[in-house]
Structure prediction request, 304 residues.
Amino acid sequence: MQGRIVWSSPGIRLRPSPRLAVLLAIAAFAAPAALAQPLQLPGAQPFNPQGAQQEAPPAVGGAPAAPRPATMPAIKVAGEEAILGRALRRNGGFGEAIFEKTGSGYGLKLKVEGFQANNLVEPCAVSFGDSPVPVTAIGRPAGVPRYRLEASICPIVFDVLDGAFLVVEPAQPCLVEAAACRIDPRGLWGPDSRTLPARAKEIETARGVAERAVREGYRVLTAKSDAAEQRSIAREQAGFSAERAQICRDFQREGSVGFCGTRITEARAAWLRARLGITSDPKPAARPRPRPAAPLPLAPAPTQ
Prediction:
């Protein structure tokens, strides 16, 4: 580069040519940016600021990370012992049912209230006898024990829940002609509703566990289904709340205690587990073994 020297007082000053001035200005702006970026060689990992985490590069040809397996939380599934010998009432206040052991299996002593066939405002009641009526086990199609009451005047099918049972058949009330009484065994048979307020906290806790199990069960079921099935499952899940409200609308003290809603939610969770093919609860994780205590130091030997 060429420049011309201009004498001035008191010293000497170099006046660059216009071309040289432009080049110097460009270099002045580019220098800070170049200094701010570290030198990066081909194939090197990108620079991370101090304190930032740097992920390891994926292994060449390695398999992708396996997705987290879909699971459903454990839920208590009641058996026959949950209602054995207990006096249960329809909607917590009507009739009486006692599930008992018999010589050949199980039976049900049952008294159902209703209204006269020719006067639907006049109450009446029908007893199925002083001895337990035999019931027949028909498996667990909904994830809980199901039984059929072998009574010609009103055959009943019910599911065993925790301290209650849910009548799923008949679809309509039964007309007992000999007594001219129209009885309705449908709905949830549970403890006397007057005993439930003392268990409100326990019932509330159980309801929370069941709600979480139902939500997770539907999530797992959705993840395993195709698009068409997922839409059907979404409609089913949305309709469950209305179905539960329909069953429990006449259960006494339901608004303050929620016993019926809790048991119906637990039943839905059990049904989802059966639908997913889950037949047993997951085993609890093994507890770590306690470490042995360190030996105590030996006392020094006494001096002679």
In short: The mean pLDDT is 81. The CA atoms of residues 98 and 149 lie 12 Å apart. Residues 80-193 form one domain. DSSP finds five helices and 13 strands in the chain.
